[in-house]
Amino acid sequence: MTKMLTSPLWSLLAVTFISVISIVRSCSPSDQTAFNAFKSSLSEPNLGIFNTWSENTDCCKGWYGISCDPDSGRVTDISLRGESEDAIFQKAGRSGYMTGSIDPAVCGLTSLNSFVLADWKGISGEIPPCITSLASLRILDLAGNRITGEIPADIGKLTKLGVLNLAENRMSGEIPASLTSLAELKHLELTENGISGEIPADFGSLKMLSRALLGRNELTGPLPESISGMDRLADLDLSRNHIEGPIPEWVGNMKVLSLLNLDCNSLTGPIPGSILSNSGFGVLNLSRNALEGTIPDVFGSTTYFVALDLSYNNLAGRIPDSLSSAKFVGHLDISNNKLCGPIPTGSPFDHLEASSFSDNQCLCGGPLMKTC
Questions:
Q1: 4 — pLDDT class (breaks 50, 70, 90)
Q2: Which residue from 263, 271, 226, 281 is spatially nearest to 246, judged by alpha carbons?
Q3: Computed from CA positions of residues 246, 252, 256, 260, in that sequence, does the dihedral angle turn out positive or negative?
Q4: Which residues are CB-contacts of 260 (< 8 A; sequence separation ≥ 6)?
Q5: Is the preceding omega at residue 348 within 30 degrees of 0, hence cis?
Q6: 3-state secondary structure of 140
Q7: What is the DSSP letter of 271?
Q8: Which residue has the higher pLDDT, 290 or 16?
Q9: CA distances from 79 to 56, 82, 95, 158 (A)
Q10: Residue 136 contacts by C-beta under 8 Å, 6 or more apart in sequence?
Q11: Cβ distance 280 to 257 under 8 Å?
Q12: pTM
């Protein structure tokens, strides 16, 4: 047995076996080629991010922001953020700045699970349409750049996608119809772009979605009724768009919705009582719309608002006395309406400033220093 272990044949087999492992675990030639093209289309002058991306070194070993599958040697993750706590940023004492565009060669990284190229401020151009061929992609985060063009029409082909973040770019066009087929999508952020058109009628098909942040765009039309069936939706931000029509009663009946930002739209009609009586809401912003009627007198001991903003509407009548029975109201703003009558006493009114009540028709008492 000892002779077998020390024989030349065994030594040759051992070397061959080790070599095979080394070959399998090194960066695949196709991925290396894709990276060379990807890198050549980008410029990062301040931090030296790409200094480790040498053509003569293994992309799976020591390349900044790159991770590979240890068995196949295929690249699985690109994680490049322009704002990070990594040592390379702390040493430079600054956030990152990168220019250039996303080369379609990135689509050759067919085992990619996550593609993060966010917060570099200067990356421009369009998202390569071939990005939708990356069948294993679970995270696509290109936020905080200057990307233009439209969301790829076939985005729905990314059936495993759980995070789509394209916020703070310069994108246009409508939300693609195929997006609502992303059955695994949990986080959708399109904030601060130029996305237009109506929210797809079947938006509620995104049953796994917990965050839908679509504020600061050019969206129009009403709130689709299909949203009422999104039982996992916790955060909905449609602020600073052109959403119109009334606020549906079903919004207040959503099971886990805790943040609702609908400010700076064209909403009309009354505020549904179900929204204000829902003890699950923590942040509710309906300011700067054209809402009318009275503030529903539906507050109670389970009411808990970190922030409640109803300012800059056409609300009339009195401030509901039941608001005094709320468990907690951290920030309240009902200024710039047509409210009248005395401001109730006690919590939360005793810690609010006059600006929370200013520019109403005939409010008096409390911090306004105006006798009733």
A1: very low
A2: 271
A3: positive
A4: 236, 237, 251, 275, 281, 283, 284, 285
A5: yes
A6: strand
A7: P
A8: 290
A9: 21, 10, 15, 19
A10: 76, 110, 111, 112, 113, 160
A11: yes
A12: 0.91
Distance (Å, rounded) from C-alpha 215 to C-alpha 233? 16
Sequence-distant (6+) residues with CB within 8 A of 33 are 105, 108
Evaluate the CA torsion angle 154, 125, 191, 48 in order and state its sign. Answer: positive
- CA distances 178 to 151, 152, 157, 213, 220, Å, are 10, 9, 8, 18, 19
DSSP tag of 126: B
pLDDT tens, 330-372? 999 999 999 999 999 888 888 899 999 999 989 998 898 888 8
**DSSP characters over 316-351:** EEPPPGGGGG-SEEEEEE--SSEEEEEPPPSTTGGG
d(CA 97, CA 211): 28
Instruction: Classify residue 51 by its DSSP letter.
Output: G
| 8 Å CB contact between 138 and 160 | yes
SS3 of 239, please? Answer: coil
Query: How many other C-beta atoms lie within 10 A of the C-beta of residue 355?
Result: 12
Please compute the mean of the pLDDT values over residues 2-9 and round it to a whole number: 42
Residue 84, pLDDT score = 81
Whole-angstrom Cα distance, residue 121 to residue 119?
A: 5
| Cβ neighbours around 215 below 10 Å, total | 23
Distance CA 329, CA 247 (A): 22
